[in-house]
Every structure is written in structure tokens, then in C-alpha cells.
């Protein structure tokens, strides 16, 4: 896996992980909030139902109060009238009232008349609740509520119900009514369904946003990756083209030196030898023949020196024979002797240096010193090569004229050659210069392969 792919993963994975955690925490918080809201809603709903039951009981008491206060009716007549009134009272679709004696005997039950006259003191609902006993108990406290299961008309199926009961003190009767909670539970289930639907919609919306974001990040990474690849390809093509031009230029120069230098010297040498041969055939004096042979020897020596210089330009023999440190030390000594400029030289490298790095460092040093000789008018130069982890650091500083415009420096052929030589071995090239404060050439060259 490449470095760029790892960077994209490094950006996407934490994004997905953090988003999943945030979504999970948000969902948990939303569920807890929904449960709390449902609890509050259920409490308020039940409370409203209880208040309604109280109101219904108050209405029922108001309806029978004139009978209770009447002086014209006997006790039995009053009881009969109260039973008739309570038996006729209705509210809502299934609301009714009932009356029980203090002993648990049913006196009025409009929806289940078969219960009238039965003693339900020991009656238990499906949960084992002695509901008549509990209703009488809360009624004797001045009125109270009790939850139980009871048959709901018209189908008479069991359903949870909340009842409210009070005492009719004149005869110690318990008057009660109740509301079935099925509608309440249905309303709560609808509210819960709406909340769950909202949570699901929120989760879906967040998931869509996350997916779009992840896709956008991946596409952006791929676009950047593609752009960098194209940019790198264009730079590589430009570098290869410049290298080819440099190579063609070097070959052209080498061809010109061979033709104009060595070839001319060899032609002259051949001419001197032929001239000596002609003089020998004409029996001319020994001194004249020796003079031509001596000149031919001088031409051969010049040819040898020219060949050595060309060979040195192609690759210094000192690099192969004695190593980079010795070759650079000799180069610095030649420069100092030729220009009378003092040079501080330091070579602090303990590892083996690849051949391509050696020749690059030598050529960069050679080009840097040449530029100083031609342009800097410096009196002091410092040249350092040091090892830093897996890199070699090259620095060449002078106290010459310098330049305030780096662009003007960067356009020089020598600097272009240095920059390209460093780039070809995977290094980085830096140039700093200030007018009146000299110039600093710096290069960082890898001595170990860079990991992708």
C-alpha cells in the first residue's frame, strides 16, 4: 500500500470511527430522551384521565345530592332513586358508574347487570388483585384511585382500567367509575412510533451525510493523488528532457574536444613524424630529424594530457582510486591555490556512499566552486559534507557579493545543472543569497532508498 493510500485511510478511518461513535451516542441520547418524554407524556395523560374521573364522580354526586338531601323520601325510596340515577348516568363511549356496599355487595352495575346482588369482596382480577377491597379502602380515605383489569364492553375483553371511588356516607356505599387505559396505551404507542420514526430518519440523514462526506474525502484524495501524479509525471518528463539535453550537450562537447583537441594534436603529430621520415629519406642532418621527432613527442604529451582532462571531466579517477573525501580535498586545494581564496573543508561521513551520490556531490562541489570563482569575488569559503541519519547534507557558503534576487541566480546554467544532478539522485536542492552577504548552496541527498 502506497503512502498516499495510507494518508487517505488515515483521514477516512478516524472520520468514520468518530462519526460512528457520535451517531451511537446520539442515538442512545435520543432513545433516553424519548423514553423520558414518553414517561412524562404518560404521566400527564394518566393525570389528565384521573382529573377527568374526579370530575365525573363530582357530576354523579351532584346528580344524586338532591335525593340525599330530600326530606320527603324514605330511606328505602332514596336508595332506590339513587340507584336509578347512577344506573342511567353515562359519559363517553364506555363510561359508567357502579355502587358497592361496604361489605362488597354490588348494588349498581349498568354494563353487567348480572353482577347486581353478588358479593364480590373476594373477587380477584387476572393479576390476583382484590379490586373491590382496594376500591373500598381508597374510597374510605376520602376518595382515591386504583388500577385493575376489567371487562370492557361491548366485547367484554379484559383490559387494564383505572378506577376512582368515593363513599356515600349516608349508607356507607362506595360510588365509583373508571376509564379503560387501552386508548392511553394506544396513544402512547403512536407517540413512541413517531419518536422511533424521527430517530430512524435522523439516523438515516446522518448516515447519508457521513457516506457523502466519506465519498467526497475519498474522491478528493483520489483527485489530489491524480493531480500529484500528473504533476510528478510532468516534472519527471521535464527532468528527463533536461537530462537528455544535458547528455546531448555533454556528448557534443566531448565530440568537439575530441575533434578540435585530440584529433588536431594527433594530426599534427602524424605530420611531424611524416616530416621527420621525409628528412630521413633525403639524408638531411640528424639534428633536423631529432627536432621534428622532439616536436612530435611534445604533441603526444599534450594529447595524453588532453585525454586525461577529458577522462577527469567524465569521472575523476581520484573517486575510484582514493574515494570522495580525497577527491574533494584535492579539488578544494586546487581551487584555493588557483584563486587564493581560503577554504574551510569538512567531511564527516562514516557510511559507504553509493557511486551516483559520490559523483553528484563531486560535480555539485566542482560547480559551486566554479561559480564562486567566476561571480562571487569571495575571500572565504566553507564547504561541508555531513551525515544526518539516512541523508548526506552538503553545504557551500561564501562571503562574496551575493544577490538579492534568487530568480536571477536560479536561471544560471551551473545552478540548473546542480539542481538537476541532485534531483536525479532523489535529493533536495536549496539556494540562499543576499546582496553583500554571500551565497549558500545546500543539498540533501539520500544514502538509503526512500520508502513510499
UniProtKB/TrEMBL annotation:
It is a multi-pass membrane protein. InterPro entries: HATPase_C_sf (IPR036890), HATPase_dom (IPR003594), His_kinase_dom (IPR005467), sCache_2 (IPR033480), Sensor_HK_TwoCompSys (IPR050482), Sig_transdc_His_kin_sub3_dim/P (IPR011712), Sig_transdc_His_kinase_MctS (IPR017171). Residues 253-449 form the Histidine kinase domain. Its EC number is 2.7.13.3. It is found in: Cell membrane. It catalyses: ATP + protein L-histidine = ADP + protein N-phospho-L-histidine. Keywords: ATP-binding, Cell membrane, Kinase, Membrane, Nucleotide-binding, Phosphoprotein, Transferase, Transmembrane, Transmembrane helix, Two-component regulatory system. This is histidine kinase. The chain crosses the membrane at residues 7-27, 162-182, 202-226. It comes from Marinomonas spartinae. It is an enzyme of class 2 (transferase). Its main location: membrane. It holds the Pfam family HisKA_3. It comes from the Bacteria. GO terms for molecular function: ATP binding; phosphorelay sensor kinase activity; protein dimerization activity. PROSITE patterns: HIS_KIN. One of its GO terms (cellular component) is plasma membrane.
